[in-house]
Queue: 2 jobs
Job 1
Amino acid sequence: MSILTHKHSHILENVSMFHGFGILELLMKNDKKNIFILFGATGDLAREKILPALFSICTKKIIENLTIIAVSRRNWTSSDYRDFVLKEAKLPILQRAQRTVKDQKNLDDFLSSIMYVAGDIQQGVYVYQTIKDYINTQKTKRVVAYFSVAPHFFQAMVTDGAKAGLWGEHQKVRVLLEKPYADNERSFSALIKTINDTIGKHALLVDHYLGKDVMQAIQKIRVPNKALETKIKSKLKHIVIRLFENNVADRRGEFYDKLGAFIDVGANHELQMLASLVAPLRGPKIQSEKLFASLSVNKQHVVPMQYQGYQKTDQVHKDSKTETAFEITLSSTLSYLKDVPIILAGGKGFSSYQSDMVAVFEDGSHITVTLKPREGIHATYPKIIENYPKPQEAYETIVEQAFQEKTSIFVTPEEAKHEWRIITDVKKAFAQKNIETYNKGAQVPEYDTTNPIWDML
């Protein structure tokens, strides 16, 4: 089977909002700070990725004097939230059977940097005004806010935060929005308009794959390597990109059922993987927008799939047609990609986590970029061997570069606009197909360097 297969006042009159921090503590903490505001601080992304990244950053002292403001609806104190971090966050240090004195100090320092704000982002400007009032009592260097919540909240959050004066075109707060940014092409366009009217260039669209060491390395390899670039521009035969995961949708059924596998991994990570390797270069810059604008979907070569039992997942529609895996073929109007099949495949519920891409050339040579289970770049000719045995976590890089006011690893609105166009076309094509099924835990589809067609084993 084929699968490619809250009324507000001055913060010192309303200090209870920052549970666990007294007036004296607030007054004493007046060194110049970097502040990270984490919305959705109890969600899966925060637990599994963002909090571990922040812990690493604090431990390495990459961002000095960092204060973390964790925001969630739960009526907790800062002490309660710190207990949550100890119990639920995926910090590597918490997995150790024994901790050294240094380990414990690092953990204590990290926990002491966290403040908690109990607030509902759906209740207007109150929570944003409270955070702003606190920030106004501090000497700050940089402020970064991260929207680790469902995308349908983004537009109201951008608007309400701007009304409160927490962020805006003339503020220094950078706002990070986590993919997929919106629920559909229309809502994405509305979000970008709101961003342009409020935050402007201070809004950054996140695709964490762009923070991976190997993704940044591809560009560094391509720019000076004329032999490789010549082959990419004249001798490509086909490109295969796959991103298969061994997890399932059990913890986020309602959210996942609205998106599906293609939005989840295809239109985000896989398209960025593709751009890193074959998008046109202008000097050292990869022109992803130009590549994405050239792409179209071969509607005859799309395969939506769903693992058996998905429809029984909590908060998933009993007759759901949402794909949990997919295979699609894209084509490009760029001259050097005109007759090159671009095959994207991925999904959930497989036996292992595998993420890679292979570009095969007409002479049988190839370049392989692996992101999971290990990061590396290997090419047969010109010979390239690059391994990254201990890569920095992508979210660590994302947060670092946001504080450093860099923009190169963030998705541009124009790129995301083209991604949503492709999503719309793929979803329309899926709707015309019968959805195929596969067993949960199925083997990841294999491929070889001479054949772009993948088969379920």
Job 2
Amino acid sequence: MAEGWPLSSKNDVRETSGISGDQDPEINDGMLNRTSRQTGRWLAARDKRVAGLLHETNGSLACCTRQTGRWLAARDKRVAGLLHETNGSLACCTRQTGRWLAARDKRVAGLLHETNGSLACCTRQTGRWLAARDKRLAARDKRLAARDKRLAARDKRVAGLLHETNGSRHKAKTWMRQNCQGQTSVLGTGKEIE
């Protein structure tokens, strides 16, 4: 039975929960022992996580609290986004979260295996991967910006051509033959001008 939970019998449960001895709350000693064991395991796991976090922050409870607060805020943001993507379906959200956690644990386990269990080396490799990802995303954004610039220039040319020919397809086709080496399709669309 976990420490800090001085319940010795189901009579104590009735007294602390406001249930009289004549009522039967359907609580037996087996259920109480099982609940105590599960609670004890959860508390032990929580204490282990908190102890590890305090160790990482050199025993600074304020720093530990800030890190925990940031993690909780990030987690809530992710969960809110996941609920939005799944149209508020908690069951679907739970399944997706479970798959994501399983995949993450698999990746972390593989990374620790590759680095012979060195958490510092694992962290360095993760940092390099994140830096490489950021570099790839920056290059992609640069390509997209160049594409948008080209499309804007094309739209400007097409708008100017229609303005010069007063929207006349015949005049536009003639102008394109004279200025685009015989090209007779609308710029950027591939459609033939009739």
